[in-house]
Amino acid sequence: MKTIYLGLSGDIIHPGIINIIKEASKHGEVLVGLLTDSAIASHKRLPYLNYQQRLEVVENLKGVSKVVPQEEWSYLPNLKKYKPNAIIHGDDWKTGPLNKEREEVIALMKEIGGEVIEIPYTKGVNSSALSEAMRSLGTTPDIRLKTLRRLIDIKKPIRIMEAHSGISALITENLEVEKEDGLHSFDGLWSSSLTDSTSKGKPDIEAVDLTTRLQDLTNILECTTKPIIFDGDTGGKPEHFVFTVRTLERNGISAVIIGDKIGLKKNSLFGTEVSQELSSIPDFCEKLSAGKRTQVTKEFMIIARLESLIAGLPVSDALERARAYVAAGADGVMIHSKEKSGDDIKEFCEKFRAEYTNVPIVLVPTTYNQFTEKELLGWGATIIIYANHMLRASYPAMMNVAKTILENERSLEADKMCMSIKEILELIPGGK
Asked: Which of 15, 170, 180, 318 yields a CA-CA distance of 20 to 30 A from 419?
């Protein structure tokens, strides 16, 4: 029997999938290359089902003879490895982003003496629309909570964007940019105490009650599905932090980040004149341990934010604290700096990564924003947070509109700066 290779993600099984398996089985035994989570996430949204779940489904589809993992988005590595007699694909790849992949597959199959079978794309099936429909169903706290851990296992770096309102969260949730290496999108959201308080016109102080912040966070939870990392400031006293962990975990938040500074709160990036008093290492370790002891699920993450560099201390101090915090149970570390060169951050990352190959490193490149995500990944970064850009962008936009209306005593000139009402309604699910 001939072997017919079919590459699938298997996340949504629709009539088009059944049809192509039927067609493939007419030519020989169907060998399915099931894309791994990392292969899919490198080009598209994280699949709803993990690899093992999708494997169980696809293995039991009628007509499938064998399933093997496809570790890369490209078919070429598996085609070289298994040397099938043919590969089958819908003819939709003749145009669009997969056209280049098609040309490479045709050339390789010719080289190994195989053929390329193309069948008409099944009419009435729109995978993107099906995916969008699934997304519109929302998620559950349990599923959302687990997603960050899944991402850390399969994708680096993880791209997180600040969201301070439902509308900013919707933009982060839905925005996609097509590039040569696939679709680029944000993997999750950052709930920042700074942007949350500033959006209310209030100072960024830690005295804000957790319940108040959660009321606003609920608006984001209700209209998004992606994982959320919560800015927990210092975490408060250990007995307070325990309740914070329980509340966040119950609501489906994936992680909380707390810093090792004490005293009156000042934002870490406020300015060079701000002195920073740090917690003692034993005290902060006890707070981390208390949080870890109280969480119910293994998926919830507590990440320690290191303020050593902000306080003017050397990288060696940050490393000493990082080692202690990881030993106390921290699931990752965030390192902060006001230095625009980024040299101190790079030094920390490289030295920490040499000791801990798998502990996540979180970077917030607000000051050293000249470095690309690939460069930060090269330093050892796992998660990159764009911590306040949505709020910072909204303020000048609103100022310009308000000023234009005042200057012209009408809103005509401001229209070009604004979305239309129709676009606004289309952005909001169910708003039409």
From this structure: 180
